[in-house]
Write a structure and sequence with these properties.
Blueprint lengths: L13 E11 L2 E10 L8 E4 L10 H7 L5 E4 L8 E2 L10 H17 L8 E5 L1 H12 L6 E5 L9 H8 L7 H15 L3 H12 L3 H11 L15 E5 L8 H10 L3 E5 L12 H13 L2
Parallel strand pairs: 3-4, 3-6, 6-7, 7-8, 8-9
Antiparallel strand pairs: 1-2, 2-4, 2-5
Helix pairs in contact: 2-3, 5-6
């Protein structure tokens, strides 16, 4: 499973580069940059995948997408690709640090002329929550943003909260992951989504995931999201049992320029077919300035 965190995947009709970007004194994050072989004037995409997400889950979508647009793919600090120079602490996984990571990466890539002043944001799950919070605080900006299954709060069952909070030794963490896989597979109906979550959970740095989960149990988005001025869309599926429709509806009402785009399933959003809905939204923004 370590292969998920080594090297940049080769995608057809594109050139790729892996960057390790220092975002603070003791942390560096991995960033993938793909450019279409055929030059395009299309606005680039800054893509931030969800909690612990591995690239393989996004390969079908990105493989097709990168032939149309430049894609910058950021792996966040809870992932096994993150490089911590010092011993990790739970406070390393608070939302404000995630927001700062993305802000710094955007700033550095723009200084290197790797990212235009105008770019679209695309994110999933925890990353969507991070970007919503960052947009509200004015720390992150973009031309527009699509969120897949953002979370208002992070809901863990009682048994999971107890296990996550217990000061269990490190060697027991892999058993917690196996329990989590069992719980997810009971709740998720789509086989593709089951495979994706199983692969994701088995590929993690378990200590980072525990620290992150401990913080997220008490987190919720700001009550007001009225500072978000850019056009936003939320992708959601009624069949997605892990990310409820209720959160999506609440968030969409609180973001002034947000709309909901209903898709067949969460797994569909990771496939090339989803570009129909995604590109329709972005292209409309570009046509209307």
């Amino acid at each position: 499973m370590d292969n998920h965190w080594k090297g940049i995947p080769n995608l057809p009709n594109s050139t790729g580069e892996e960057k390790i970007i220092r975002v603070s004194e003791d942390l560096s994050l991995r960033v993938f940059i793909w450019k279409p072989v055929k030059k395009t004037s299309s606005t680039p995409i800054l893509m931030v995948p969800g909690w612990g997400s591995v690239f393989e889950g996004w390969r079908p979508l990105v493989t097709e997408w990168v032939q149309k647009r430049k894609i910058i793919y950021i792996e966040t600090r809870e992932k096994a690709s993150a490089i911590f120079d010092n011993k990790m602490k739970q406070k390393d996984f608070i939302i404000s640090k995630y927001i700062e990571d993305i802000r710094v990466i955007i700033e550095k890539l723009q200084l290197e002329n790797e990212l235009d002043a105008d770019f679209h944001l695309f994110s999933s799950s925890l990353a969507s929550t991070i970007i919503i919070h960052g947009l509200q605080e004015g720390e992150i900006s973009g031309k527009s943003s699509i969120f897949l299954a953002p979370n208002q709060k992070f809901k863990f069952p009682l048994w999971a909260k107890i296990l996550i909070k217990l000061p269990l030794p490190k060697f027991t963490l892999k058993w917690l992951i196996k329990i989590a896989i069992w719980a997810v597979e009971r709740k998720v109906e789509e086989e593709g989504q089951k495979i994706r979550y199983r692969r994701t959970l088995l590929s993690q740095n378990y200590e980072r995931m525990r620290y992150s989960a401990r913080y997220l149990m008490g987190y919720s988005l700001p009550e007001s999201l009225s500072n978000i001025e850019i056009p936003c869309a939320i992708l959601t599926a009624e069949s997605d049992k892990l990310h409820g429709m209720k959160d999506v509806e609440v968030i969409s009402r609180r973001i002034p320029n947000a709309c909901i785009i209903t898709i067949p399933s969460n797994q569909y959003a990771h496939q090339a077919e989803a570009l129909k809905e995604i590109e329709s939204f972005y292209s409309n923004i570009e046509l209307n300035g």
